[in-house]
Amino acid sequence: MRVKSVRIPDDIDRSIEYVARLEKLEKTQSLRKLTRLGFEFYAAKSYERGKLTLREVAALLGLTLPETIDLLVEMGVKGNIRAKDVMDSLKAMS
Amino acid sequence: MDADCLIKLTKAGLKENISQHYEIAIPLVVKEEVVEAGKIKGVPDAELVEKNIQKNIIRVAGKKSLIHVKGDQALMEIFKRGQYDLVATDDAKLTRLLKSMAIPYILPGLLIYSLYQRNIIDKADAKNWLEELSFFISEDEHSMIKLLLEERS
Fold it and tell me: What is the value of ipTM here, to two decimals?
């Protein structure tokens, strides 16, 4: 694990303390947890917008593909196909 | 078939139903991504897919490459060899790539619709299967397929 020095704004510091207090964690553990959750959310939203493939999300998060689908579903991201993609696929089928 | 489509059909409990009516092939790299990587972490879906491969319900295409090839690259390379009709995927970024290379693709929801369209399954089954799949596909895909099923009556 690397040691890094970062400037943390007051509101984020309060969030870290809040989670640490609520979950009985050290502040560093709380910070790691929130950072991971934030990155998972960022990756999930990028997938939802079609900017990342499932494979890319899995690689970024260090998960298997089935685990990644489970995580995305848990975060309310069931897929990223738009209506136009459905119509294009339908045209290709006919 | 790409890994996302395969995993979603597996999780929805539809893989066996779909594979009865379609000949499914996956690139070796997709097998490694789903089965080998999943088994290391004890993911139950990995064992289900492995059993399907052993029973020849799913065929593994392609050979082990010396260079690292990603699943989407492997899919396109295998498709270009010419014995396949469509690439099955549920990934928007991959569909854009397939479109740019003029490779036809099919979405998991449309696999169900196609069976209904060809009178292989009835509307009730198609709607039930779509509902099972709805936990894993986008709202757009779900509502579009539902509309298509309703239209064709």
Answer: 0.85
